[in-house]
Structure formats: C-alpha cells, structure tokens
Amino acid sequence: MGKYTEDAARLLDLVGGKGNISAVTHCMTRMRFVLVDPGKADVEAIEGLPSAKGTFTQAGQFQVIIGNDVADFYREFTSVSGIEGVSKEAAKEAAGANQNPLQRAMGILGEIFAPIIPALICGGLILGFRNIIGEVNFFTDAGAFDLQHGTKSIADTWTFWNGMYGFLWVIGEAVFHMLPVGICWSVTRKMGTTQILGIVLGLTLVSPQLLNGFSAATATAEDIAAHTYDFGFYSFLGTGYQGQVIASLMAAFVLVWLEKFFTRVTPEVVRMIVVPFMSLVPAVFIAHLVVGPIGWAIGNAIADVVNWGLSSDVRVLFAALFGAVYAPLVMTGLHHMTNAIDTQLVNQLGYTTLWPMIALSNIAQGSAVLAMTVLQRKNERAEQVNIPACISCYLGVTEPALFGVNLKYKFPLVCGMIGSACAAMVCTGFGVQALSIGVGGLPGILSIVFAYWGVFAACMLIAIVVPFVLTCFVGMRQLGEKDRGLAAAAAPVEGAAASVAAPDAPAPSAEVRDRVLLAPLSGSVAPITEMPDPVFSSRAMGDGLAIEPAAGADTVVAPADATVAATMPGSNHAIGLVLDDGMELLVHVGVDTVEMGGDGFACLVEQGQRVSAGQPLMTFSTEKIRAAGHPTAVAFVVTGEGSATGLALLDGMDAEAGLTTVATYRA
Questions:
Q1: Which of 88, 158, 211, 542 sees the fewest Cβ atoms within 10 Å?
Q2: What are phi and psi of 143, to 5 degrees?
Q3: CA gap 370, 411 in Å, rounded
C-alpha cells in the first residue's frame, strides 16, 4: 500500500465517487477535479483528510490542496479510482462544459478584463490624485488654507503641481480614452488569435482621424463634415469609440470569428497573406458601420439603467440589494460584468456611483473575517488562514476570505452581506461618486471624489463595525469549542509516558546552529500574504515570501544545498526541494502559469538531482507570463516541517540571487 492510498481512496468517496468525476489532473500543489455535481463533494470531510491542506473552487474546477507530494498523490488516486488523468487543457475544457452558458460567458469576460484591471486601477488612482491637486480649492487668493471659501487648488498655487496635473493626464488618457486598444488585445489573447491584429483594430477605434467620441455630442457642422466618409452610394460619420467597452468587445469578437474562419478555409501556403488581410480589413468596416453603433447604444442603455437605479427614488433599495449580493456574485464570477458597467458609467458621466459599493462590500467581508480572527484567536490552524485573508480583503482581494473562511462557516458571509448592504444604502443615499475603478478595499477612498471623502469614511466605518459585531454575536453561539480552539486536551492514557521531547529540542547528537536560505532570484520581497493566489496568501501551503522579479531576473537558483524533490514536466513553472536537514521548499513562478503549458519556461534540473546553493534550477520569461495575463510574483514557501524549526522570514528588502539572505532558521 502506498503512502497516500488510504487518503486517495477516501477522497474518491468524498468527491462523490468515480461517477461524479468528469476529469482530474494536477498542478504543482493541488488536485484539480471537474465534478459532474459539485454539490456532492463533502468539503468539510475532505479538508479533514491528513493529506489535504484545504479546498476551493475556481473556474468550474474543484481544487484540493495537497502540497509538494501532489504528483505521488495523483498517481495513487488514479490507480485507486481507475480514472485516467487528462491534460490540464482538457480539464479546463471539461470545466467549461460543466458550466452553464452564463457562467462560461462570465468566465470569458473575467479572463478578458483580468489583464486590464491593473491599468484601470492605476488610472483610477491617478484620476483621484489629479482631482485632489487640481479640482479641490484648498486656498484663498491670499494663500490661506480655507476649504470652505477657497478659490485656488494646489495646481493653481504651485507651478510644479500645475505641470504634474497636466502631465498625469497623459497616463489617464491612455488608460481610459484608449481603452478599446487594451480590450481588443485582451479578447484576441483570450481567444487564441493574432494579438497584433487586435491591437491594430483597437487603434482604428480611437484613431485621431476620427471625430473624438467624447466630442460627438457638441460637434459643429464643420467637424461633422470634416469627419464624414462618403463612398458615393453611402456615407457615414467616422466617430471614435474612446472609452467604449461593449462596442470594443463586439468589434474584437468579429475579428476573432473572421480570423478563425479564414484560417480554417485558407490553404496553408497562402495563409500568412490572406488571413490577416481578410480578417482585419472587413473587421474594421464592420466595427464602424455595424457593431460599433450597436455596441455604443447597448453600452449607453446599460449605463442609463444602472444610473437610474442609483439615482432614482428607489436608489436606497437598489443599493441594499446590490450591497448584499455582490459577495455571492464574486463567488460565481458574475461580478466581472461590473467592470464593464463601471467603465461605461465613467465614460458617459465622468464618474461611477456603483464602484464605491464594491469597495465597501470587500471591506465588509474582511471585517467578518476580522471577527472570526478574534473568535478563533486560540485556534492556531484557523489563525493561519484568517489573518492573511483579512489583510487581503481589506486590500481589495476577497477570494481568500470568501472561500477560505466566510463560505466555510456561512454565517460570517451573511453578516458581511448585511454590513455591506447597510453601508451601500448610506453611500448611495448620499450619492458618493468615484472617479474610476480603484483598489477595492480600505485604500479605495483614494478613488472617491474628494467632496465625498467624509461620507465614504463613515460608510467604511459602517462596513467595518456592523459585520464585526454581528459575526462576533452569532459566532459566540454558532462556533463550537473545537472551532474556537478552546477544546481541552485529551487526558493522558494511564501508563503512558509522562512527557515527550519538546518539538524545538534537537536530538542530542545533532548540531544546532543558525542556517540561512538565499534568495532564489532577484526582486522585491514581501510576505507570502501578498501573493496574488489564495492558496499561497492564506498560508495553506505554509509560510514564505512573495518575490516580484526584478527587471532581467529570469533565473531561479537553489537557495541552499538540496535535493530536487519535484519538477513539473510539461509546464516547468515550479520546483520542489528538500534540504539536507529535511526542510521542504517550493518555488512557484507566477499564478496559474500551469495553463501556459511550459511556454517561456525551462527546467534545468531533474527530479532526484543534488544541487548546490546558487545553482540555476529553471528559467522563465516575465514578458510571456504578463502577455498570458498572469501575475509574475514568485512564491517561495516552506511546505514541510522536516527537522527545521524557528523559521524567521525577513521581508521588505531587495533580494539578490545567490547573495542575499531572505530567511534564517535554526536546525
């Protein structure tokens, strides 16, 4: 019997048996199931398995976190179950088939917007900063600070800030006015067609040769005449689609369909010439003559409906409903639609009243986790998940909190929804406006129009206090002593030894000394809680560091003398190591980079090979990781206890591969 045979057989039963599994595969740390009926999986029992470190569901896949030994577990699972594993791409396709059409559409939309969101957040913060220095009159004509009677802004008072105010719009315009370029690129990237054609199509939608879309409503007769294209039998006004989301999406999908069609029907010998021309040129005409105007009308209609809901006499009820259901929307993936709506509102109105409620929902769910942290302060295992999940939530990333804590216990999720609804009603009742999408947590106030800072701060306080108090009140009655870490230790069996060796005490013959781990690559170091992956940020895999690679840092080196315990043939995105003292380490490059199928990665060592500190282990391309829409952060994690104790991680410093100590421990 293998090491994991018993757990593998138990897991098969707990996921609903062989008949409930459509596909199964694995990555470096977790088993990935596509289940016929996800409701049959007994999550609580699965998380109680000795081999399992947690579970979560993402993009139609039910994932069980195993750790470095996942390849061994996977082999024993397929042997016990009689199920033949599939490739990761096949599992991904099966997961898509397991979703309803709306879930698949939202999944595609989410993958399209995911690479664009960092730019939108950056642009939103820049607009917020420009608003503060250029739109708020802090000073009187005499130069005195007076918010109530001020007539001059910071930009009006100082030449430097006036220049900064103007120059920052270069970035703001690139993010928001030129947004169709990013959307068309992201659609072609997601759908697997030629990305440069998507970029060119996007550029034709915002070309300066067209009448600027923001100026169309106030255009003079001369402007209209200058931008009218007359083909004799037909003429139309060449209008730009600056900031338009729906029109850009529709145009990009036309290009994707045309390219796939002509690729399929064109002989390979002339494909290089025929396909780009026959795809791009018709797509540009169709975009401007057909789908562009339709998409513009649809986008404006959606924005008008949402704006009516947020500004009508029933806006408080609308806000209560949206504030309550937003967190469940995140768990289904339907929340990605709000990115398009927010962007459309900003494009049409110059602000959005929807996004502030999203930021408050994130804060509310984080506050529910904060209450769970207090309730479970004596439960060491729960604290390892609660604390990083709470921090992540307050910084705008809710998945670790939702899947790791609130959904698990259910009542914190409901308490967070109630708190979010209360805060949303106040927020919308006072008409709080955001300049754009921002950081969806406590820092979100930076994207709020300055005049509403006081109201939004009060709303944040509501989103903190209400869920916290409710969760504490309900948790005192719902959580058992075991969950709170209050269960008394079992009495010792009569006749058993009275004491055992302290876990930190080394064997008498062992040499006790401080040891170090070197940085596996150059970059900026942060706690593992800042890793943009809930499996790592929740410390489910263990403690460690998140390293953002420095420019030109494309090689992972061994942090100490070790044996290669695991590699990932086919994807080459991660390596597991076992040090001489038994400590187990994992170096995982990027997030969800297993989906890249090894493109941009190269493994330089083999499983079982001895390596020395500083020896190159693998190479990777940050450019290709970014182009694929994945974060580039590298997780450097202690995944096994071994004989090493007293690990002390040093963050907030620059790591230089092979030279800088990033961790010390005693073994």
A1: 158
A2: 95, 5
A3: 13
Distance of CA 553 to the CA centre of its chain: 23
CA distances, 384 to each of 44, 154, 372 (Å)? 17, 45, 12
Contacting residues for 241 by C-beta, under 8 A, at least 6 apart: 180, 205, 206, 213, 247, 248, 251, 292, 295, 296
User: What's at 544, amino acid-wise?
Assistant: G
Query: What is the helix, strand, coil percentage profile of the chain, to 5?
Result: 55, 15, 30
Asked if residue 448 lies in contact with residue 128, where contact means CB atoms within 8 angstroms, the answer is yes
Q: What is the pLDDT of residue 370?
A: 93
- pLDDT of res. 501: 32
String of DSSP letters for 471-507: HHHHHHHHS-HHHHT-PPPPPPPTTS-S----TTPPP
Q: Locate 330 and state its tokens.
A: 């995140």
Q: Which amino acid is at 76?
A: E
Looking at the DSSP bridge assignments, the partners of residue 224 are none
- What does residue 297 show for φ and ψ, rounded to 5 degrees? -65, -40
Determine the number of helices (DSSP H) and then strands (DSSP E) in the chain: 25, 20
Q: Which helix (H) or strand (E) holds 237?
A: strand 235-237
Crossing angle of helices 271-286 and 246-265, in 10° steps, is: 150
Three-state DSSP at 266 gives coil
Which residue positions in the chain have pLDDT lower than 70? 1, 28, 58-60, 68, 84-104, 106-107, 110, 331-336, 381, 399-400, 403-404, 485-515, 640-667
Give the total residue count for the chain. 667
The two three-digit tokens of residue 224, written as one number: 């209209």
Whether residue 122 lies in the annotated active site: no
Structure tokens at 267: 């002989």
Residue type at 609 in one-letter notation = Q
Q: How far is CA 520 from CA 437, 480, 623, 660, in A?
A: 35, 42, 19, 9
Distance CA 182, CA 524 (A): 27
Burial class from Cβ neighbours inside 10 Å (0-12, 13-18, 19+) for residue 520 reads: buried
Q: How far apart are CA 491 and CA 456, in angstroms?
A: 53
Among 27, 390, 427, 603, the one annotated catalytic: 27
Q: Where are the alpha helices (DSSP H) in 485-570?
A: 534-537
Backbone φ, ψ for residue 226 (5° rounding): -70, -25
Q: Return phi, psi of residue 266, to 5°.
A: -95, 135
pLDDT at 196: 93
CA angle 464, 469, 474 (to 5 degrees): 135
Using CA atoms, how far apart are residues 348 and 485, in angstroms rounded to an integer?
A: 52
Contacts of 488 (CB under 8 A, 6+ apart): none
Does the CA dihedral 398-402-406-411 come out positive or negative? Answer: positive
